[in-house]
Amino acid sequence: MDNHEAWPDPPPGLLPNGLLPGEAASVIQALDSERWSKAEERTAELITCIQPNQPSEERRNAVANYVQRLIMKCFPCQVDIPPSISCFP
């Protein structure tokens, strides 16, 4: 699998980013500092929206506990639930 030379070349006229050669310049442009700042701000907002909250942690724990009990009932083994990456205990 590590032999990259055996991989086929992409079809002619396509760039690795999926853009057509004549269209790449019209789509790709450097961000000025103001636009970059807005992009970072929006990214931070999105990240706070997708972080776990108390209800989602409770649901995650309920599912994990159910699966743990189910496995331990069917198989003679101990199952450890990995901790969530969250600020909730």
From TrEMBL:
| Protein origin, superkingdom | Eukaryota
In Swiss-Prot or TrEMBL terms, this protein is called Uncharacterized protein
Organism for this UniProt entry: Melastoma candidum
